[in-house]
Each structure stands twice: as structure tokens, then as C-alpha cells.
Design a protein that fits this description.
- The protein is α+β, with helices and mostly antiparallel strands.
- The chain has one domain: Beta-grasp domain (Ubiquitin-like (UB roll)).
- It contains 3 helices and 5 strands.
- Strands 2-1-5-3-4 form a 5-stranded mixed sheet, covered by helices on one side.
Length: 98
């Protein structure tokens, strides 16, 4: 089981409170996690990654065990603490502007 902390606006869109818990098929990678998240919560499709390119949206960041893993390949294995559910994967919406 993987625990995910979503930003408030995505929790509202998905109609959830607190953490989201998911089971992934195969290895624990960002690609598998986002696939599972979009299957369980189809209203989130296109909010975290572009539907055409399947790449992370520019203002979305992923944090695992205190590290920004946003620029790692989506196929890279997540840390074991994330894969086992002892630590949450944190998805953050960055703020831009001046």
C-alpha cells in the first residue's frame, strides 16, 4: 500500500479528506502510482500529468522521504519507505507569479 498526500485543491476535486491509499500493480514507480491514482480517482486525470505526453505538469512536484524527486524518470523505483507505506509520497502544487 502506498500513502499519498495530495494538495488541498486535488483532495477537493477527488472528494477525499486526508491521505489517499493505493495499491499498485508491479514495481512502485511514479508512473505506476499516478496510473493507479487516475484509475481510482478519474477526476484527477490530467491534473498531475499531461494526458498527451504523460509527463508531470510543470507546477507539480513530488517529494519522497524529504527529497524532491520531481525530475527523476517516472519509471525510477520509489524509495522502499514509500513502497511499503511507512512514509507518504507527497504531491505538491507549486505556486508561480510575482
Amino acid at each position: 500500500m502506498i500513502r499519498i498526500e495530495l494538495p488541498q485543491h486535488l483532495r477537493t476535486l477527488a472528494r477525499v479528506k486526508g491521505e489517499v491509499q493505493l495499491d499498485v500493480n508491479g514495481p512502485a514507480t511514479m508512473h505506476e502510482v499516478v496510473d493507479a491514482l487516475e484509475i481510482k480517482y478519474p477526476m484527477l486525470s490530467g491534473t498531475i500529468r499531461d494526458q498527451s505526453t504523460r509527463r508531470r505538469r510543470p507546477l507539480v512536484r513530488f517529494f519522497a522521504c524529504g527529497d524532491d524527486i520531481s525530475h527523476l524518470p517516472l519509471e525510477a523505483a520509489l524509495p522502499s519507505q514509500i513502497a511499503t507505506g511507512t512514509e507518504p509520497l507527497i504531491i505538491v502544487g507549486a505556486i508561480a507569479g510575482g
